[in-house]
Write a structure and sequence with these properties.
This protein is α+β, with helices and mostly antiparallel strands. It contains 3 helices and 7 strands. It has helices spanning about 20-40, 45-50, 125-135, and strands at about 5-10, 55, 60-65, 75-85, 90-95, 105-110, 115.
Length: about 140
């Protein structure tokens, strides 16, 4: 099952045009990924990094900005996993306006599991591989 989280657009997230500045949207996706680790994986991302010395930096990103996002919008961000390899994982994200359900952003990001001390790729631990494999779209 896919994971969903909500986020409200803040005043500081918008640019002079009155819409969310596009790098902020990438930040929203990372916030959703961190929420996914906390709520779905049951391992807060900061603890994964600090205690297990395991991180998932992005190596590829393809994001489609479909409609502008405005200050005050309440967003629903859906996260699911489309592929889990030995050391990589591909997350898919969809951002909808929560009430209208209008699709605003579609993104695909590939992350690689790395040892946080050496920054070398490592195999995704089996316990996480199993959890990731269950996170499919609805």
């Amino acid at each position: 099952m896919a994971y969903k989280t909500n986020l409200t657009v803040r005043f500081g997230d918008v640019d002079k045009a009155g819409i969310v500045y596009y790098p902020v949207i990438l930040h929203y996706l990372h916030v959703a990924q961190e929420d996914f680790f906390t709520d779905y994986v049951r391992m807060p991302y900061h603890r994964l990094i600090e205690e297990e010395r395991l991180g998932f930096p992005a190596v590829s990103d393809s994001t489609e900005f479909i409609k502008p996002i405005k200050y005050g919008d309440i967003l629903e961000i859906m996260v699911y996993v489309s592929h889990v390899g030995k050391s990589s994982i591909t997350f898919k994200f969809r951002i909808h306006e929560r009430d209208s359900r209008e699709l605003l952003v579609r993104s695909s990001q590939t992350k690689v599991a790395v040892n946080m001390d050496t920054w070398e790729p490592v195999q995704i631990p089996e316990k996480y591989h199993t959890i990731f494999s269950r996170c499919h779209p609805e």
